[in-house]
Structure formats: C-alpha cells, structure tokens
Design brief:
mainly alpha, 4 helices
Length: 137
C-alpha cells in the first residue's frame, strides 16, 4: 500500500466518521421521538433531513473527491486539509451539542457547515493558483 492510497483511506475514514457523528448528534439534539410537539407533521422530519444534509455536505465533498490527486497536488497536503476541515467541524459539533449544550446549540449544524465550505473554497482557490503558477514556471 503506497502513501497515496494510505492518505486516501485516512481521508475516507475521517469524512465517514464526520458524517456518522454529525447525523447522530443532529438527531440527538432534535429529539424527534416520544411526545415532542415539534414533530407532529411528517414535514418536520423532512426539514430535519434537509438540515442534516446541509451539515454533512462538506464531509461528502471529501468522499466524492477523486482518488488520484491532480498533477502537482500533494496527497499529504490534501490529507492535512481534510484533517483540519473535518476534524475542526467534528470538534465544534461535539463541543456545541455534548460539552456546552444550550438553547442555540443546534445552530452549529448550519454554521459549522458554512465555515467548512468557506475553508474548502479557500483550499480549492489556493490549489488552483499554485498549480497555475507552477505550470507557468
């Protein structure tokens, strides 16, 4: 097993863990069981599914990335970015839901994904600029 496939396996494992953790904590914080008055209509479950789909979308991005890095892109750099973005996202969600729960803790599912997408866009832009500069040199 070469270093590229090991780093890709680590990326997939981290992104999958992020998806599972985010969905589990999202359902836990919504509490859609029992006699919760907020979940009397099936549309409420669709809204919960929509919020969770938004929350796991950054992790799905890393799963859907091609296995081979583009020419000139380092697999180690991509692994580090994956660790930073996925790890920070999981830390923020766990902190807001389990460690410091509050009335607005569920908003972390909206804003953590927003910040993760901002970091992903920044990573893609920096990579594109560096690859263009490398191609000109």
């Amino acid at each position: 097993m070469d270093s590229r496939s090991r780093s890709r396996t680590a990326e997939l494992a981290l992104a999958t863990a992020g998806i599972v953790l985010t969905i589990a904590l999202g359902v836990l914080s919504a509490q859609p069981w029992g006699d919760n008055y907020a979940y009397k209509d099936p549309g409420d479950y669709l809204m919960l599914a929509g919020f969770l789909a938004w929350a796991v979308a950054p992790y799905a991005y890393f799963i859907l990335l091609p296995a081979n890095t583009r020419k000139g892109e380092s697999s180690l750099a991509r692994l580090i970015v994956t660790i930073l973005i996925c790890g920070l996202g999981m830390y923020v969600v766990v902190d807001a839901v389990l460690i410091h729960p509050g009335a607005q803790s569920a908003m972390v599912f909206i804003f953590a994904a927003l910040y993760q997408w901002a970091m992903i866009i920044l990573y893609v832009l920096v990579t594109a600029i560096l690859m263009r500069l490398k191609a000109k040199a």
